[in-house]
Design a protein that fits this description.
The chain has about 350 residues and is an alpha/beta fold. It has a six-stranded parallel sheet, sandwiched between helices. A three-stranded parallel sheet has the order 7-6-8. Strands 9-11 form a two-stranded antiparallel ribbon. The chain has two domains: about 160 residues, 3-Layer(aba) Sandwich (Rossmann fold), CATH 3.40.50.2300; about 160 residues, Response regulator (Rossmann fold), CATH 3.40.50.2300. Helix 6 links the parallel strand 6 and strand 7. The protein is about 45% helix and about 15% strand. The longest helix is centred in the middle third of the chain and has 18 residues.
């Protein structure tokens, strides 16, 4: 994919994400409506939250003339609840909540009792008034196709391949969508899991679980479907230790993920420009803060209005596009071990 095509796809995704139908009826503006309260879940499952989401949300909300109170729960559900209580005590016109193991459900209930709308950001949860995220089953579908394509390139029959599944935390509503999207594609190609580990977003735990699976299978592993780059990095560490290279998937286009893609240790990653997702959530929040009641055409199965953003597949040839878009730096990617690959794929 050339630079122009990735940029145009991102632009289309942004346009689609922001296409809210019939934004409309003006409602009474509460006294606290100048404040957007945002809670991010952690820094462990992905570096994106602090590196990309926070600044993008902050810039969009403040540029529109609103105060942005953005805090990170650092993987602690008790801290998540405390942050929410503090924010609500100061007043919020809208809450943008990236769920952490169900903690956002209680927060949204408290917000609703005060007449404050909540936007489920990136991860769905029960009781949200809106949901803004990438097409999560689409993300899984891209990952699944990477495994199918990787096996084909390696000359391995998908129907008889030994594939290990390393999913995300089952408490995260997105994890099931990633899994279902990937399984739909892989099963259509005849792939069945040889071993499925307990889901987690903790990279170290994912690595331990994969090593146990590797041992159980006697090293007979032809591919590993992995839900994100952080877990993939741990899986690759185990594969490296055993002198093995097989198709591995991931998502987030993290530094480690992009490096592994360049090195041929990870078949692909899924690029989800946080700025595009943040723009969609900010646009929705700004309309609410301005006293409007946005109407969104797409809905989840439970009826929650869903603003879906399009994800982008990244193989080694597309890493330069992520750099050009400003979501990765060549200086960080092209360390000594990756320098030759950067030259090959013109990452500079």
């Amino acid at each position: 994919m050339k630079k122009s095509s990735l940029i145009s796809i991102a632009a289309i995704a942004a346009a689609g994400a922001l296409m809210l139908s019939g934004c409309s009826a003006t409602t009474a503006t509460p006294a606290a409506s100048k404040r957007a309260c945002v809670i991010l879940p952690d820094t462990q499952s992905s570096p994106r939250y602090e590196a990309s989401d926070r600044p993008a949300l902050n810039d969009a909300l403040t540029a529109a003339g609103f105060e942005a109170d953005i805090q990170n729960a650092q993987g602690d559900t008790a801290k998540y609840a405390t942050i929410a209580d503090q924010q609500l005590s100061k007043g919020c016109g809208v809450m943008i909540l990236d769920d952490l193991q169900g903690a956002a459900v209680t927060v949204a209930t408290k917000a609703k009792a005060q007449g404050i709308p909540s936007i489920a950001y990136d991860r769905p949860f029960a009781g949200a008034d809106y949901y803004v995220s990438f097409d999560n089953e689409g993300v899984g579908g891209i990952e699944g196709q990477c495994i199918v394509d990787g096996l084909k390139a390696a000359g391995v029959d998908a129907a008889t391949a030994s594939v290990v599944y390393v999913g995300g935390d089952p408490a995260d509503g997105n994890a099931k969508m990633f899994h279902d999207g990937a399984v739909a594609v892989m099963s259509a190609a005849g792939i069945k899991p040889a071993f499925e580990t307990p889901g987690t977003w903790d990279g170290a735990k994912a690595g331990t679980a994969f090593e146990q699976a590797y041992t159980t299978l006697g090293g007979k592993v032809d591919a590993v479907w992995v839900a994100n780059d952080t877990n993939a990095a741990s899986v690759i560490t185990i594969l490296d230790k055993n002198g093995k290279t097989v198709p591995v998937s991931g998502q987030d286009a993290s530094v480690a993920g992009l490096q592994n893609v360049l090195l041929g240790k990870q078949t692909c990653t899924v690029y989800k420009p946080a700025k595009v997702e943040a723009a969609a959530a900010s646009d929705l929040a700004i309309k609410i803060l301005n006293g409007e009641t946005p109407s969104v055409a797409k809905k989840l199965a439970d009826g929650t209005p869903f603003v879906a953003v399009t994800p982008i597949k990244v193989g080694p040839e597309q890493v330069i596009d992520v750099v050009t878009a400003g979501d990765a730096k060549a200086a960080e990617l092209c360390t000594a071990a990756v320098a030759a690959a950067c030259t090959t794929y013109k990452v500079k």
